[in-house]
Amino acid sequence: MTQQPVATPDKLDAAVLKVAGVVVLGAIMSILDVTVVSVALPTFQSEFDASYARVAWTMTGYTLALATVIPLSGWAADRFGTKRLYMIALALFTIGSGLCATADTIGQLIGFRVLQGLGGGMLMPLGMTIMTRAAGPNRIGRLMAVLGIPMLLGPIGGPILGGWLIDTASWHWIFLINLPIGAVALVYALLALPKDNPEPSESFDFLGMLMLSPGLALFLYGVSSLPEAGTFADAEVWVPMLIGAALVVGFVLYSFKPRHPLLDLRLFANRNLTIAAVTLFVFIIAFMGAGLLFPSYFLQVRGESTLAAGLLMAPQGIGAMITMPVAGMLADRVPVGRTVPFALALIALGFFTFTQIDPHTSYWLLCGSLFVMGLGMGGTMMPIMTSALKTLHAQEVARGSTLVNILQQIGGSVGAAVMSVILTNELNGSRPIPGLADPSGRPVTEAGLAIATQQRPELTQQFPIDPSLIERGLDFAASSFATTYWVGFVLVLATFIPAAFLPRRRQPSHLLDDQQAKAPAVIH
């Protein structure tokens, strides 16, 4: 066996970029599906005659499935090989997408979204592991930047594509669009990914799995049930929350005992990983949770079409696309503790605008604020994840990326659940209209009627509706969104606390040390 050279070139060669293309396609599908559905929620409400809290489970169920399956990816990658497992995940996601398009009820759609999530949950951690091995330690930041640009096609193109498909065809096509992408990605993965031999598998922590996954699912189910139940005192809320929390706490206490735990919490002994993970977790709760509601404001308060709502969200992705390559290059040269706080400040600046919204806030101001938030987001996500993984040893990368990714998904699930609960509870506080009820017998509120007329203007012609009542309802609805955004804004400010402890001096890379120590170290 010939010895590999220790140093890897600074530039990304064709072999690395070829592998990156496979990961990018999988990531685009996974991210696209989150953003596409965010503009489709009002359509699901009218299509399936369901409440906002109910249709929100098309988001929550998906992210719950992501968080549930991620712990399996590290063990399964060792057991079956990353290439084989990545292709299985692609196939599962693509099949789930096709089934979503066949759903006749909201329950079926939620179930098929969970199936999608089971495939999608493995795509990102496996992709990160594949890319970290392919790039080498001194090119991780640069590679993340290259990956980040096409991955932003999801956030930018998702709402626009979803809006166009819903307006011109039907909601079914927002899922059918994944079928050709998935087929291409499968063939590409078969041809481009290097073969890897499965290593002797560590024993799988089934007990940990039985505690963590149901614990997360039950806890978030309890939180998400709050809008319909109306109070924490309802057994449907506090019972699953209590059982879920007990299972998660039990998992944390138990996970330090097995030799090969489901999630290796011992990695938190690495200070850089711990600080980066906490920063990322708080940030995701705030930004992703409240960010999913931005399209809903345009759709429900401003009465825009789904395509227009998607176009209005584009400045955020464009801003991130501008700063992400710069942040990736800086992550290889400048400690993230010196750059991330500035990026967070941009996010906070843009976010504050949304705490002041009303039914007539200038679109120039809103789009400008989204652009500024995007600039900040591009300088936040990838540098923090790079900081978390850069100082791990080579044998820790798979477990480390799994740990960071599950924290990210849990943060997204918690954020989406909490923000939807706050918004729904605020909207439920609107004044009911005497003598007016929906088909299920629930009283119609002023905010509910105002939102309905914004989405279906023909209602104002079919029924005599007082314009002042509509205006009052829209004011209340906008105020409800603003209150929800205040919660997100405070959480963004809270992110500055852990971010203050991010490394401000250059850290040595253990990955590079490991390559120097092992002569024939081959990185795929």
CATH fold annotation of the largest domain: Growth Hormone, Chain: A
The beta-strand count equals: 2
- Give the rounded overall mean pLDDT: 79
* Proportion in helices: over 70%
The termini sit apart by: 16 Å
Low-confidence runs: 1-8, 511-524
Strand order of the largest sheet: 1-2
- Assembly type of the chains comes to single chain
Count the helices. How many? 23
Gyration radius, to the nearest Å?
Answer: 23 Å
* Category by helix and strand content: mainly alpha
What is the element string, with H for helices and E for strands? HHHHHHHHHHHHHHHHHHHEEHHHH
Number of domains: 3
**How does the overall form come out from the CA principal axes?**
globular
- Name the CATH architecture of the largest domain: Up-down Bundle
Give a written overview of the molecule:
GO terms for molecular function: transmembrane transporter activity. The chain is mainly α and 524 residues long. The chain folds into 3 domains: 13-193, MFS general substrate transporter like domains (Growth Hormone, Chain: A, Up-down Bundle), CATH 1.20.1250.20; 206-261, no CATH class; 264-506, Up-down Bundle (Growth Hormone, Chain: A). Helices cover 74% and strands 2% of the residues. It has 23 helices and 2 strands. It has helices at 14-48, 52-55, 57-80, 82-100, 106-135, 140-151, 153-168, 173-176, 178-192, 206-224, 226-229, 235-254, 271-291, 294-301, 306-333, 340-354, 363-378, 381-390, 397-428, 446-455, 459-462, 467-499, 510-517, and strands at 432-437, 443-445. A two-stranded antiparallel sheet has the order 1-2. Helix 1 (14-48) runs antiparallel to helix 9 (178-192). Mean pLDDT is 79; it is low at 1-8 and 511-524.
